[in-house]
Amino acid sequence: MIRLIDSLSYSNRLRGMSPMWKCGFAAALFILSYGSHPPVQAAIFAWMIVWVVRYARIPLKAHMVMLGTACLFFIASVPALLIEIQPGSAVAPGSSMFVLWSRPYGSVFVTETGLHTAEALFMRAAACLSAVSFIMFTTPVAELFQVMKRLRVPALVLELMLITYRFLFILTETAHDLYTAQRARGGHNGFRGRLNDTAMLIVRLFVKTMHRYKGLSHGLVSRGFTEEIRLAPYRAGSVPVRYRLESGIGVAILLLLECWLRWRGIV
């Protein structure tokens, strides 16, 4: 997945636009998504799909797969939000929607409050993820580092992020090669065989990845690394007037909608 995102970030239709403008636009929508009402968050989610799929020409399947993969972490936390455990068999009237398990010494049920909380958190997570996905699919990581450098992010932090990003590719490539080699030798057959081969893969993955990481370090030193990784100079691309107008008007409408919901006292 990381290779697909990296490839699409270099080949999308919004690649030539100013990375600073794209980051500022996504950051504004991210902040608005975090503190707004669900209707505004739903509008942001739909609007970001238009930007990513229609304007940037990112395949809808790739976009949905990325959002779905990220939502798996939210799904894992849903039972803790929905399910309540109460000692005794008595459940307060109107406090639950569905009793899952009831005994004289305790009850397990789904509460209406938990359902509303899960719904609100899902809309917030989806809207924030859509804003982040706009940056992921339209701006290469090299340009993100340039933006962070202009924002005066410490050089040490940028170097650690750059090395970590490179380390992810080494990790995935090594894991793929080891898995392919095991399959070619008849591995991963049966449940017990998969467990044994997976354990061996994890051990060998760590050893081979550290070996390749040392090779990367030696390569940097041989090329004159002087304790500072120099980034390419920042290149400010132009932003079409159409996109400037649409983004400004869209953010203004979302802010007005949020103000109207707060004025009406809608939760």
UniProtKB/TrEMBL annotation:
GO terms for cellular component: ATP-binding cassette (ABC) transporter complex. The keyword Transmembrane helix applies. One of its GO terms (biological process) is cobalt ion transport. It is a multi-pass membrane protein. InterPro entries: ABC/ECF_trnsptr_transmembrane, Cobalt_transport_CbiQ, ECF_CbiQ. The chain crosses the membrane at residues 66-83, 121-141. It is found in: Cell membrane. Keywords: Cell membrane, Membrane, Transmembrane, Transmembrane helix. Pfam families: CbiQ. NCBIfam families: ECF_T_CbiQ. This is Cobalt ABC transporter permease. The lineage of its organism: Bacteria, Bacillati, Bacillota, Bacilli, Bacillales.
